[in-house]
Input
Amino acid sequence: MVQIHVIVIGVDMNKMKITKDNFDPKKHVAEFKRTCNQCKKIWHSLANREKKIKDNINVNNWGVIGNCCGDKGAAYQAKRNVEANQTELDKIKKCPKCSSADYKEEPLYYEKKL
Ligand SMILES: [Zn+2]
Output
């Protein structure tokens, strides 16, 4: 009976890999790698930034609704903010080269550099 021991080298490398499941916003950075299906341009977008813009849209949407019968100026300003953020979001979600919204997306995770 011969026992064969297999020593796997490089297991530690896999342990280091950051995935969606062990993602920690305090330690890691998430971004989207997008590849345009039309012109093959590759661009990156920080997940944090997109989240901030989306949150901004939500907050201001509440401003629009909440002020519907009272402060018209504030409601107007909130509406303007929603539009500005929406434009920003649309810009991020389009190819910077050919403006196509036809792209594939791949999440990337990094260790934060301290
Ligand atoms: Zn493109």
Notes: The longest helix spans residues 72-92. DSSP finds three helices and three strands in the chain.
